[in-house]
Amino acid sequence: MTDSYVVRYVGGPLDGRVDTLATVPGDPRSTVTHVHLHGGPKIVHHYDLHYALEYGCEYRLREI
């Protein structure tokens, strides 16, 4: 059995999303940007990287 690397998202529109990767990424991005287009104004959310030793990393919604 191979341990997978788990990336979790906390807060905002991606809250609860979990991505499971087969391998540990060489250099995880420090910020993930999520752009929501819905026929109205563009809404942009930024998620900042936080490490979670027990499973991988976690991206938390940046507070404004």
Write a brief caption for the model:
Helix content is 0%, strand content 50%. It has no helices and five strands.
Total number of helical segments?
Answer: 0
Instruction: Enumerate the spans where pLDDT stays under 50 for 5 or more consecutive residues.
Output: none
Mean pLDDT: 86
| Count of separate structural domains | 1
Order of helices and strands: EEEEE
User: Strand order across the biggest sheet?
Assistant: 2-1-5-4-3
Q: Would you write up a description of this structure?
A:
The structure is a single chain. The protein is an all-beta fold and 64 residues long. The protein has one domain. The protein is 0% helix and 50% strand. The chain has no helices and 5 strands. The chain has strands at residues 5-10, 18-21, 31-36, 43-52, 56-61. The radius of gyration is 13 Å and the shape is elongated. The model has no long low-confidence stretch (mean pLDDT 86).
Explain the layout of strands and helices.
Elements: E1 5-10, E2 18-21, E3 31-36, E4 43-52, E5 56-61
Parallel strand pairs: 1-5
Antiparallel strand pairs: 1-2, 3-4, 4-5
